[in-house]
Amino acid sequence: MEKKNLTGVSEFLLLGLSDDPDLQPLLFGLFLSMYLVTVLGNLLIILAVSSDSHLHTPMYFFLSNLSLTDVSFSTTTIPKMLVNLQTHSKSITYAGCLTQLTFFSLFAFLESLLLTVMAYDRLVAICHPLHYLVIMNPRFYGLLVLVSFSISLLTSLLHYWMVSQLTFCEEVEVLHFFCDPPQLFNLSCSDTFINNILIYFIGAILGGVPLSGILYSYTRIISSILRVSSSDGKYKAFSTCGSHLAVVCLFYGTGLGVYLSSAVSSSCRKGAVASVMYTEVTPMLNPFI
Length: 289
Known about the structure:
The protein is mostly helical. Helix content is 74%, strand content 4%. The strands form 2 sheets. The protein has a 3-stranded mixed β-sheet. Mean pLDDT is 85; it is low at 1-7. Its main location: membrane.
């Protein structure tokens, strides 16, 4: 196959979820509805938190940042998909593809880190209630979000750099609805062994370490709750953690399910359909939870 220099690749083709033309209007309506619900639900949370002084607490500060991340996460993929469905086009420019994968990585990792920070906030609130306001002061919880964003930004720039160094063959059809780095590695004529090792290592670190932190936090939380003698106290403690735990299970459960299913199944199109769960469905359901 003839190679092209990476500067000569002008666009990629996002093949999407289906080639059936009869399904395109249905997919357009479905994803437009999901996107509008996601944006409206999360913006209402941000508006409620910012307008009510009683909600200016660490827990709701983290929640509003999570909502903003969810809106941004969906915005990196759905609008481009909707445009392609409406115009019956599958193309995305080379620069647009790099931009999309960079922001997708940024907000995916940021969501993971924010969920970890929220678990730590609940740990302090339940296990150290008398010291909560001292530990979770505005400077500290603002710093937690800033560090989470900085780590996510550096990681996303590393993803950008890895893909920008690749050369591509004539075939630039991406079997996905967005520019997923592993899919782009498969299209490259370059040796991507190191890239694949690196991207899975990053995924394991920025996925496994936050998840381990969440599990540790909830182990401590559950242990502390079980020592509470009052049933009302136990219910109150569980109620403050239940929604966060549900979001954690939804995000990590669907994400792990996608990657495990893609490892078992050889169908890239099925992997793309499964990716809808954590890229679009999870941000839509978070406001309801």
